[in-house]
Amino acid sequence: MSHTAHIPSHRKPRRSASKLAVRAGVAGGVLSTLAMAGTASASPAAEPATETTLEMPVLNMDLGSQVSSAVIKAADNTRAQALVGELNAQEETARTGAAAEAKLAKADAQAKADAEKKASDEAKRQADADRANRGDGRTQLASAKGSSGSGSSAGSAASDDDSGVRAPATGSASAIINFARNQVGKAYVLGGTGPSSFDCSGLVQAAYRQAGISLPRMSQDQSSEGTSVSLSNLQPGDVLYWGSRGSAYHVAIYSGGGKFIGAQNSGTGIVERSLSYDPPSGAVRIL
Questions:
Q1: For residues 41 and 212, what is the distance between their CA atoms, to the nearest angstrom?
Q2: Each residue of 190-217: pLDDT tens digit?
Q3: Between vectors from CA 188 to CA 185 and to CA 191, what angle results, nearest 5°?
Q4: What does the CA dihedral 74, 78, 83, 88 come to, rounded to 10 degrees?
Q5: Whole-prediction pTM
Q6: d(C-alpha 268, C-alpha 178), whole Å
Q7: How far apart are CA 39 and CA 37, in angstroms?
């Protein structure tokens, strides 16, 4: 056993490091405060502390030009949008107009087609009627020839001409010519058959009806009726034609004395003129 074991230690107990640090900090702070106070009291004429001013960074931007550019850009965008709207409106108007025009064109085409079909049907009907009339006319002519033959054998005053067709009675030719002459001055209308207007074949057909003879409606067929006669051997009541026999484009009635009565055209109407005014191509004798 040590000879010092019974002697109590006089060493102070150790303090913790954290406590020492706190105490050192407090002490340092106190010393700093005292030092500053001493300095302040030792030099009272020292210059006062200056205030520190923080400078804001200067923005290197031209705000005026940017605002102006933005305004111009916005205006350009507005104008562009307005232009697009206007173009769209014009396109819509054009489409609407084109649709309307197409509708009108379709309606016109349909109306034209309907009119052409109606005209075609009418022409067909007229052709059928002409064929029927031509058959009736030939039947009547055959009956007239038979009657004239009987009259000759019975001592009738009428005589046959060189063509073999019995010469017409004066009364029949007079009825035809008088009727035609009474129509002079009336209007020429294509397709007209009276009583206020006629075309060329309509007048001839109506005049021959006064003598009880039914003729075809068309000038081509009328020029095929009866017997051909020369223009130097015409008799009142003969049918004159222009063009070729069977395909004549115009007909009239020989009224005697080198004249004819006919529905010439819309400008002259129905007139009585000299053969020299419009010399015919040929003539047929139907009476």
A1: 164
A2: 999 999 999 999 999 999 999 999 999 9
A3: 145
A4: 130
A5: 0.44
A6: 20
A7: 5
